[in-house]
C-alpha cells in the first residue's frame, strides 16, 4: 500500500529550481529530471524504511537515478503518510537547510 508523501515549501522551491535549471541546460532534460524525481518519490511512498538514515538518526536519503541529487525525508510514524520532505541536496552540498529541517522534525 502506498501512502501520501508531503513536501515542505522550501523543498518544493528547490525541486522546481532544479527542474528549471536542467531544462535550461538542454531541452527535455528537465522532463527527465522530473521522471527520476517522481520515481524516487514513488519508491519512498511504497517502502520508506528501505532508505538509509543519514542525519540526526531520523533523516533518510533517497538518491535520484542519473542525477546527483538526494531527497532528504523523515518518516512520520503517527500520521497517515509515508514521509515529509525536509530538504533536497545536490552532490556534496550540505543536504538540508535548518529552516526546512526543523519543521519536519517536530
From TrEMBL:
Gene3D superfamilies: RelE-like. This is Glr1691 protein.
Amino acid at each position: 500500500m502506498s501512502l501520501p508523501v508531503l513536501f515542505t515549501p522550501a523543498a518544493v522551491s528547490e525541486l522546481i529550481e532544479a527542474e528549471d535549471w536542467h531544462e535550461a541546460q538542454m531541452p527535455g532534460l528537465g522532463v527527465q529530471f522530473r521522471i527520476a524525481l517522481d520515481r524516487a518519490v514513488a519508491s519512498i511512498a511504497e517502502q520508506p524504511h528501505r532508505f538509509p538514515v543519514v542525519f540526526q538518526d531520523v533523516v533518510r536519503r533517497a538518491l535520484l537515478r542519473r542525477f546527483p541529487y538526494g531527497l532528504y525525508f523523515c518518516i512520520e510514524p503517527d500520521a497517515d503518510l509515508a514521509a515529509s520532505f525536509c530538504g533536497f541536496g545536490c552532490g556534496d552540498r550540505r543536504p538540508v537547510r535548518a529552516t526546512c529541517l526543523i519543521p519536519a522534525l517536530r
